[in-house]
Each structure stands twice: as structure tokens, then as C-alpha cells.
Write a structure and sequence with these properties.
This protein has 307 residues and is of the alpha/beta class. It contains nine helices and eleven strands. A hairpin with a 2-residue loop joins strand 10 and strand 11.
Length: 307
Amino acid sequence: MNTTLFFKVTSKNHFPILNRFLTIGQIESLKFSYEEFLCYLLGIKPNPDYPLAAVDYQKNQTLYYFYADPVYLSLQRDTFFLEKKLTNDFTQDEIKNLYNTLNETFKDETRAFILNDQGQLFLELKKEPHIKTTSIANIKRQSIDLFMPQGNEAIAWHRFMNEIQMFLFDHPMSQDRVRREILSPNSIWFSGGGVLPQSIQSPYGVIFSNSEFLKKILSIGKNISPQSIDKFHQEYISEDVLIVFDDDKELGRILEDIWNNFKKRKIKNLNIYLSFQGEVLHIHNQFIQLFKVWKKMNSVLNYFNVN
């Protein structure tokens, strides 16, 4: 049977335990954010973005949604770099104030800013925009001109974002944060646009996960729900299994179980995906590779070019 593991690497401290198991397979690097790749695994296609914001918001199946993340841009010689996403850096009063004032200035008959219960800001559109956006996770420390919206309506969206930048520069909340020497949002970054899929079909017999975003994706389908990570045991090796970790709880135990069964040929194909800093590393393991003793061993740390 086939087993797929997907782990979100949030710290270099995770690499030692991963290196024990992940050094023999065929390696390829994939340009996905963590959330984009979850959509990919479950057959949700980009059009042209993966509909991350709609999946996250989930309160309407017909309107188009973008993430609208407040960000800090640093001025370089003749351009800006996106330095930090500030979505989680606001007090509840600050984010509500920002939400209200953005709507007072920019809301019209086709668009509105909305706020979910967790303080995440979205842009809701009544018609589909003809642009492709870039997830913040995929933005490098380079000119934001390389990552701005692209497509038939790109110029209009660039103008819209510039208007927001000018608005935020003079906003009282921004001025107050500057006085308190706190990073101030000087732009809103739009990404993850799309409409909520009508349904999904899981290609896996059973799914184990502690990922909240994966739970939201699976809630779109009928009678599809992940089981808790701590319920995974070796008897599930007989099915096509997807295991998704948002943290390292149970990681060591499950990797040990999977690897032992792989060496016993109870698993035919072992696909391991690691998400780190806007990149996904795919390691495809087949049983015959265990006998390639001449194959040079490498570390996950090296694969990601992490110092």
C-alpha cells in the first residue's frame, strides 16, 4: 500500500529527527506554500490561484475571496521589500479599527473587506478578478514588483494597492504604532483568491491529521474527516494513508512505525513531503532503494540549503 506523510517544518530543531529517516529517496523541490500543497494533495486546482481564502473563510460558496494581509514594506533604493506579515500583530481593537476604516474608504458595490472571528482580514468580491497573486510564503526578500498581481486586470489592482498604501501612511493607527516603535502596516497584500469548491473527492482511504486548514478543506466533502494523529497505529498500513502534521507531536513515533513497515515491505511507496519557508521537498522512497548502499546519503538540512 501507499503512505503519504506531509509535515510543516517550523523550526530547525525538527531536522535531526527527520534526518534519521529521510535520506535515501528520490528528491524534488516543489514551489508550494503549505496550504497550497494541501489543496494539491486533495485535487483542488488553481484557477489561477488556489482558493485558500475561500476555504479558510467558508461562509459563502458563490463569492470570490482574497486574503487581505496587513504587511510592512521596507523602502530600498528604488523599490520595496515585503519584510513581515503583520496579520497576527494587532490587538482586537486595532484590527477592527483597520477593518472599519478600510471599508469606509474603499468599499463599493463590488467589493468589501470582511473580518472573521479569528481576526483574519479578507476581501470579498462579487465578481471574479482577472489576476493571479503570490502567497506571502512564496515571496523572497526581493523587489515586490516581482510578486505583484499579474493578469488582465493587474494595472487596476496595482493602482488599488497603491491607494491603500497612501491611505495607511496617514492612518492614525499607523502613526500611533510608529510612535510606539512598533512595525506599522503600510500595505495590504492580496493572495489566495478563489471561490469555495463545491465538493472534493479524497484519494486516500484514511487521513490522520492535526491540521486545522486540512479540516476546513475536508469539511467541503461529504463524510470526509481526518482522524486524530494519536489514533494512528500500524494496522492502518494496509490502506492508502495520508498523514499531515502541523506540529511535532507523535512525529517520532509515527515515523518509526512507518519506516519499520517500509523496511518490511508492507508499504510499497512512501511519499514524504516537508514544507519549510515557502518550499515543499518531496522524497519518494521505494523499497529497492534500501539496497543501494553506494547511494550517497544526505540530510534534509542540506536539501533545503539551510545553514
